[in-house]
């Protein structure tokens, strides 16, 4: 059975919010690259060793940036999926939550790589996490509506 899918007029906002995540990824790449250069951790090493990080604050910051980036790319696919699905039923709300997720992930990055290390990521994690949680519930609700309407 074929399904015709008509996108809401405001779905462009959903696409804009999704696109913002690509630029957050670029921020992560740039910040991680900056700290890699400062710490002199050569490729292909993904992280500074424990000993290097204990002795060199630049190596420790590189590890924080690398972990923040890894966490971002671990979470981006499901956040985008929830955004795209939720946006079918609630385009403006989903777009606002998607943009909030991107903003929260930026706070997460700068908090993690600031002077506080892992503790600095907390506010951004909660901010992005709340947006992500809401998007996932909206996506589930949208999925149920699609199932029941067919």
From TrEMBL:
Entry GO terms, CC: endoplasmic reticulum; membrane; nuclear envelope
Membrane topology of the entry: Multi-pass membrane protein
Pfam family, one: MAPEG
Subcellular location: Membrane
Chain ranges passing through the membrane: 12-30, 79-103, 123-148
Location, primary (coarse class): membrane
Alphabetically ordered keywords of this record: Membrane, Transmembrane, Transmembrane helix
Single Gene Ontology MF annotation: glutathione transferase activity
Protein name as annotated: MAPEG family protein
InterPro entries cross-referenced by the UniProt entry: MAPEG, MAPEG-like_dom_sf, Membr-assoc_MAPEG
């Amino acid at each position: 059975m074929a399904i015709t899918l008509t996108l809401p007029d405001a779905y462009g906002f959903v696409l804009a919010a999704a696109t913002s995540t690509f630029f957050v990824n670029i921020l992560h790449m740039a910040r991680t690259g900056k700290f890699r250069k400062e710490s002199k951790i050569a490729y292909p090493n993904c992280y500074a060793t424990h000993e290097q990080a204990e002795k060199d604050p630049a190596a420790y910051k590189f590890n924080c940036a690398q972990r923040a980036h890894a966490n971002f790319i671990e979470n981006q696919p499901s956040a985008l999926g929830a955004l795209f699905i939720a946006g079918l039923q609630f385009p403006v709300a989903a777009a606002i939550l998607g943009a909030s997720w991107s903003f929260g992930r930026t706070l997460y990055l700068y908090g993690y790589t600031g002077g506080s290390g892992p503790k600095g990521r907390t506010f951004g994690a909660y901010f992005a996490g709340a947006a992500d949680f809401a998007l996932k519930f909206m996506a589930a609700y949208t999925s149920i509506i699609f199932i029941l309407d067919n």
